[in-house]
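cron nightly-structures :: item 1 of 1
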Amino acid sequence: MARNLRVKAPADDTLVIFDVNKDATKRFVDELGVTSKNVVASKLDEVVDRSDTIITMLPGPQHVKSVFNSFLNASSSPAGREEKLFIDCSTIDISTSLSVRKTVCESSLNGQFVDAPVSGGTVGAAAGTLTFMVGSEPALLPRITPLLSLMGSRVIHCGPPGAGLAGKLTNNYLLSISNIATAEAMNLGIKLGLDGKVLKDLINVSSGRCWSSEINNPVDTAQREFKGGFGVSLMKKDLKLAIQAAEEIGAKLAMGERAREVYEAVEGVEECKGRDFSVVYRWLGGDEGKK
């Protein structure tokens, strides 16, 4: 995402990046270098000090709270500069996001806060084809949309603050279940004697077609040992957040708890831990020769 921002943004824009993963920033520097317009921050506070627009993507609610506490303790916006816009692309619970937004808007930072989680995975992030699901006041869209379009192919305004996360949790709830179903179907068909490629092609021109069957088919991800992609722990986290949101509003989820049990079990297996969430296929008994 940072690479696409740097390559596609105006050359006179300054990009300040920070990541606790130093390997990630090293890869960025190795490819694009460091200049006066391309800065690696030495500490988190430097990001908010030097930027008018701050984009965050963090693993969970606790990380968002921690980072924004650091932001709010940093110096306030210099006089005369445009108000700071915080775009949080993390997938977290709606109540935490709204609480952070309230704190930002009431702080001395003169800030606006937008929730804009993404869909598309690591492949979409690299290709610049992510979908951004935005929860914000309509007045901010002219400022938000051109920026996010540098990193994605679709920017969908889902509604007021919190609505972007509502869209993301709903989508990922469906994805968590379709991934399990795809893994089960591929495992079933292959054990019934079908060739994996034939089965994949059949499903993808038939009514069973979905993202998990077409783009992230477990027979394909098995070829790379289920490495990279969207981690099983992240899917487990997103599913938990979706179930929590459903409980808060009284929405019945017939498949939610069973799916959660599956991801808990998958993550508990050493050969599956830390892999792409399609590793459910391995847990089911597919890919037996590669364990």
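cron nightly-structures :: done
The domain at 166-284 is CATH 1.10.1040.10 (N-(1-d-carboxylethyl)-l-norvaline Dehydrogenase; domain 2).
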